Amino acid sequence: MNINIQSVHFKASADLKAHVQDKMRKLFDQNGQIIRAEVTLYEDGSGPASQFCEIKLIVPGVPFFSKKGAATYEQAVTGTVATILKNMRRRKKK
User: Fold this and answer.
1) Contacts 24+ apart (CB under 8 A), 84-90
2) DSSP, residue by residue, the chain
3) What domains appear along the chain, each with residue ranges and CATH number?
4) Distance in angstroms (rounded) separating the CA atoms of residues 33 and 58
């Protein structure tokens, strides 16, 4: 499991990194062809959903990408992973 976690303008805590790795494990279990995952966490704006997570999965063919915002980074990561899982299942059916 090759996961690159970047946190822009803050230092991610060990708990946050562990949460990201735990959620990313679901993606790696779903698709064994994933080469690596790039996770970017950042804050944008001052609204209620101002903490964002972007995930890009490098796989042979077309890569998967999703971005979600939420009140916390943990919620943003969970939402982004759920969206990518849905897209992976949709593409698998084709």
Assistant:
1) 84/27, 84/55, 84/57, 85/26, 85/27, 85/30, 88/27, 88/30, 88/31, 88/64, 89/30
2) --EEEEETTSPPPHHHHHHHHHHHHHHHHH-TT--EEEEEEEE-SSSTT-EEEEEEEE-SSSPEEEEEEESSHHHHHHHHHHHHHHHHHHHHH-
3) 3-93 (3.30.160.100)
4) 9
Q: Which two tokens stand for residue 21?
A: 């790795």
What are the tens digits of pLDDT across the range 48-94? Answer: 778 999 999 999 988 899 999 999 999 999 999 999 999 988 887 76
Measuring CA to CA, how many Å separate 51 from each of 13, 16, 32, 36, 88? 15, 13, 29, 23, 24
What's the pTM? 0.89
For 5-45, how does the pLDDT look when each residue is reduced to its tens digit (9 = 90+)?
999 989 999 999 999 999 999 999 988 889 999 999 999 87
